[in-house]
Amino acid sequence: MRRLTCLELNAAAFAPFGAVIDGEGRAPESINDGTTQRYADLARLDLCANAGDGAPLIHLYVASARRFPLRLARLERHRRASQVFIPLNGQRFIIVVAPGGPLPDWERMQAFLSKPGQAVSLHRGCWHHGLVALNDSDRFAVIEGGAYRTDTEELDAPEDILLELPE
Amino acid sequence: MRRLTCLELNAAAFAPFGAVIDGEGRAPESINDGTTQRYADLARLDLCANAGDGAPLIHLYVASARRFPLRLARLERHRRASQVFIPLNGQRFIIVVAPGGPLPDWERMQAFLSKPGQAVSLHRGCWHHGLVALNDSDRFAVIEGGAYRTDTEELDAPEDILLELPE
Q1: B28 contacts on A by Cβ (under 8 Å)
Q2: Pick from A40, A46, A130: which is nearest to B55 by CB?
Q3: Which of A139, B69, B86, B105 fits B141 for a cystine, CB–CB 3.0-4.6 Å?
Q4: For this protein, what reaction is catalysed (chains A, B) (predicted)?
């Protein structure tokens, strides 16, 4: 049995797994007659070149709070498109990821606690846990590839891994 | 001189211009071991088939409050990709759009006031005004086509059109 605690989400630590969408450390450009600061190109959708996948889609997720310690029983990945999670009320959430190719490297699994206002884009093929929300009725916009219904691989954890409630 | 007031944003009224991302009137499906309700496929990114455009990009916009009555001096459109505006703190905002092809139909320009939690996707090529935020420091995630820096047509309004402050 293993216990996992949350790291703080920032671009450098998260780089192997994806992009953090928050503008931190970036210089914005002024558009819309000076009324908007644009932090451009924070994430790029990585879509499989197979046109048969169709266009990327946007979903709304309404999540329940997870209970902690949370048993991380399973990881999944999507090989045909990156996946984006955007909290709709500035709420924090937890992103659980692992490096690896055909198999996740369970020993190097990591959990990141977002700061208010941060969103993330997961690299195409990145092993990750299903959405971990901290409050009931938390809402997220999620962007996926057009083939998302057939593009999920899942694998069960080889041992009990428990995620601690962040402080 | 003409004055424009805001309509309530809903899927039916907005259909000629794009999609409303809010799950209203949709049946969700249960995923993530029952901890997430997914309202799937609320909007589809419509991307030009020209691979030279590159992948779609995600920006962060930080906007200032507009002052009302707001002079709607100019509309723009992007012919190579749809464009998505996602408020990051559940805030309301105003979407100004007009039907039309090579030229906007200025007489049929409309303004929609979103409800808290609603996001929108504008159809590829839809004439629209730059982002109209209601509060200082309002944050939005914006998704655009990879060619967004060269994919904007702008046209000046042929008369003074003033948008009233919504009640």
Answers
A1: 62
A2: A46
A3: B86
A4: (S)-ureidoglycolate = urea + glyoxylate
The domain of A83 spans: 2-163
Question: Mean pLDDT across the stretch A33-43?
Answer: 98
In angstroms, the separation between the Cα of residue A124 and the nearest Cα of chain B is: 13
- Domain tally, chain A: 1
Residue of A nearest to B74 (CA): A32
Please tell me the predicted confidence (pLDDT) of residue B73. Answer: 97
Q: Does the CB of A135 have a partner CB in chain B at under 8 Å?
A: no
Reported ipTM = 0.96
pLDDT in tens, A43-66: 999 998 776 888 999 999 999 999
Distance of alpha carbon B144 from alpha carbon B83, whole angstroms: 5
For B25-86, give the secondary structure using H, E and C. CCCCEEECCCCEEEEEEEEECCECCCHHHCCCEEEEEEECCCCCCEECCEEEECCCECEEEE
